[in-house]
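Design request, tokens follow.
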């Protein structure tokens, strides 16, 4: 595979590396090309909406239904041209997003600030940022991807920000219908139905979505329904919108496997009684207005109410789930429930002004978020097999062994200023100040006294950053821009890290939050010659992730504390070569080849464990970070001729370790051990019929390659998880 990587990298640099297709609009003026082949992605280079993006690595991905499988939220295809994004392919349902970047954790995308239409979709962005909810991609118009440099604008996280921008209105008519219906392997059925329109100053858009499947593995069926509605009223200089999301899914979880079984019988299951349910509701009120003096305002008020409900038999896989004759049923299951309430508000201001004869832009804002989590765990469930959250009190009259209240309040102010110096140089300094209060109290069997005292912590965090941009070439058919940035980052200790995992584990009372910084240096641009478009973006990155939280053995007992520092560095590259009408003059035609990849090295640089100090055999220093493959390569081609298009994608993900000790062989429960490298191939085609209809078909995992993708110690069941086998889908899309 290293030879394949060398070929891809040589191709990348031999064609001088390129940028993305927003320059195609300026360089190619043929209306029919722009109309029939909408952009796949753009790299905004100065201002995007009300956000300053100059000097930063930021991309906007447009979800063109012709180019990818949206029916199952296939993120491997969505991020095919986004280097640096690691996608965990263990969940083919697409119900949850598990992505990461630059050697960070992919666990439910918790190193990203995940948003929909500009507001948070995680239950508690500061204390519990796991993204359980993901919007259906059938209803998404574009995805904005900000890297670690977004810490000053969108929060203090290390990974960056992902914003799903949902569709707004469909055309200018009073009523338009849009639908997409898919049938596929493993009992897949997906139906998306949307209506929208405009009447005077009013606009509206709404959709209903349903998806279900039996799943590739036994005991992996799922059902999901989403309802979304948006109503807007516009005036000359602004707009006010109200939107509501109601989503829910129920997923039977097949649990983990032993490595040998996963390789030989990946579609089997050792658990049939594990279930996961997620009801999720969100409401948002948004106001945008542009004043005559160059001042723009965007204000949001948001409310989230959600539940995380699970029931299952969570013993290790070497403990069989058998019928218990003593109680006349299968062993009783555990019931866990979380109840989330989050209210947040954010006001962003953007003001253009003159300084030194040049136009300058200042962005500033304030944010407030209050989150409440009621965590109910270790309830004594039933011995049945269906989804059932019924619980029975224990001998002490306690319904749940853990009943905790977790509260977070976060207030932040932020500001950035784009200083234009001459025609080519921009400098963007910025800062962010956050006040964070968190508290935790309640009853738990994880401590010997049975009750947690009222624990609270108040922090004031000040972050700074600097971005620069130098547009050293700007011609009609050629441009190139250098960008660089460095930002401080911060991640609060999460509630799951503050709680002991057992009665014998001790949590360090002086445990601190994760701190560090990130930086990038890159070049992007494009070159157009004779209806051939070359685009590129290549950059080096560096992340320092200090005071990582983990567990050590002290005096024979587990001790949870800050265990050390991580360092991640590497190269990200994307290039695409597009030929317009290379073979035909009778029809609009486009042939594109792309390569997108990451070469990275993420290792521990410090490890505070006195029991192994100075022992080179047991020391973690120099070991690779968990789930940080050294290479992620995606390459493919797209060919479009008139009403017909075909696309192919190849993905290679290098091997990675699943624990800090870099254990190679799996343990008895398959919860640690190295994951081997794997490859995936996807193929799809699309036909446009009578302007209003599209027919699409494709094959995911074309060569049916089954690989070990992830190891887990809890839900969806301990053991190793694999990707899905070969699947076929057929989609009919309608717009009238």
């Amino acid at each position: 595979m290293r030879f394949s990587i060398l070929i891809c990298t040589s191709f990348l640099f031999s064609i001088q590396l390129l940028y993305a297709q927003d320059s195609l609009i300026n360089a190619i003026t043929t209306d029919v090309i722009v109309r029939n082949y909408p952009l796949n992605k753009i790299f905004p280079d100065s201002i995007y909406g009300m956000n300053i993006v100059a000097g930063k690595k930021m991309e906007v991905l447009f979800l063109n239904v012709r180019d990818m499988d949206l029916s199952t939220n296939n993120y491997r295809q969505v991020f095919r041209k986004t280097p640096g994004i690691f996608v965990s392919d263990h969940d083919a349902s697409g119900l949850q997003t598990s992505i990461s970047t630059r050697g960070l954790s992919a666990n439910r995308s918790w190193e990203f600030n995940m948003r929909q239409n500009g507001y948070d979709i995680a239950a508690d962005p500061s204390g519990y940022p796991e993204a359980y909810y993901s919007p259906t991609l059938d209803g998404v118009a574009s995805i904005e991807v900000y890297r670690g440099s977004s810490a000053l604008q969108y929060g203090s996280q290390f990974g960056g920000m992902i914003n799903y921008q949902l569709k707004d209105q469909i055309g200018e008519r009073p009523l338009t219908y849009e639908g997409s219906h898919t049938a596929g392997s493993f009992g897949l059925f997906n139906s998306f139905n949307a209506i929208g329109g405009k009447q005077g100053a009013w606009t509206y858009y709404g959709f209903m979505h349903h998806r279900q499947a039996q799943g590739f593995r036994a005991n992996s069926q799922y059902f999901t329904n989403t309802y979304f509605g948006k109503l807007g009223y516009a005036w000359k200089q602004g707009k006010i919108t109200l939107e509501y999301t109601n989503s829910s899914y129920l997923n039977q979880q097949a649990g983990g496997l032993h490595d040998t079984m996963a390789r030989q019988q990946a579609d089997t299951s050792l658990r049939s009684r594990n279930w996961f349910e997620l009801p999720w509701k969100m409401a948002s009120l948004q106001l945008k207005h542009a004043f005559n003096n160059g001042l723009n305002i965007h204000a949001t008020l948001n409310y989230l109410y959600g539940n995380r409900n699970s029931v299952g038999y969570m013993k290790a896989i070497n403990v069989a789930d058998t019928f218990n004759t003593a109680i006349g049923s299968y062993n009783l299951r555990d019931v866990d429930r979380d109840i989330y309430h989050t209210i947040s508000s954010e006001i962003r201001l953007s003001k253009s002004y003159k300084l030194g004869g040049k136009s300058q832009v200042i962005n500033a804002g304030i944010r407030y978020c209050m989150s409440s989590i009621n965590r109910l765990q270790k309830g004594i469930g039933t011995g049945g097999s269906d989804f059932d959250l019924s619980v029975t009190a224990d001998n002490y009259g306690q319904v749940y062994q853990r009943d905790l209240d977790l509260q977070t309040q976060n207030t932040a102010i932020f500001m950035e200023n784009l200083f234009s110096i001459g025609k080519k140089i921009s400098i963007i300094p910025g800062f962010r100040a956050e006040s964070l209060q968190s508290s935790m109290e309640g009853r738990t069997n994880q401590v010997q006294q049975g009750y947690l005292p009222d624990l609270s912590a108040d922090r004031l965090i000040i972050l700074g950053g600097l971005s620069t941009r130098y547009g050293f070439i700007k011609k009609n058919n050629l441009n190139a821009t250098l960008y660089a940035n460095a930002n401080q980052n911060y991640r609060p200790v999460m509630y799951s890290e503050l709680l002991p995992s057992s009665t014998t584990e001790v949590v360090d009372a002086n445990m601190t939050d994760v701190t560090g910084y990130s930086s990038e240096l890159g070049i992007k641009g494009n070159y157009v010659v004779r209806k051939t478009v070359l685009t590129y973006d290549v950059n080096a990155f560096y992340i320092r992730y200090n005071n990582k939280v983990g567990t050590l053995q002290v005096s024979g007992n587990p001790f949870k504390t800050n265990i050390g520092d991580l360092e991640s560095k590497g190269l990200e590259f994307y290039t695409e070569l597009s030929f317009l009408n290379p073979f035909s003059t009778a029809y609009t035609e486009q042939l594109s080849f792309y390569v997108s990849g990451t070469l990275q090295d993420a290792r521990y640089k410090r490890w505070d464990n006195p029991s192994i100090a100075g022992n080179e055999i047991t020391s973690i220093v120099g070991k690779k970070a968990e789930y940080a493959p050294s290479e992620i390569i995606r390459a493919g081609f797209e060919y479009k001729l008139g009403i017909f298009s075909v696309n192919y994608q190849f993905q290679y993900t290098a091997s990675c370790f699943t624990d800090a000790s870099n254990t190679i062989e799996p343990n008895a429960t398959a919860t640690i051990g190295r994951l081997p490298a794997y490859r995936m191939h996807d193929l799809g085609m699309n036909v446009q019929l009578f302007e209003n209809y599209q027919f699409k078909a494709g094959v995911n995992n074309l060569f049916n390659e089954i690989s070990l993708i992830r190891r887990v110690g809890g839900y969806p069941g301990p053991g190793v998880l694999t990707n899905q086998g070969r699947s076929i889908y057929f989609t009919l899309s309608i717009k009238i």
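Comment from the thread starter after seeing the answer: thanks! DSSP finds seven helices and 37 strands in the chain.
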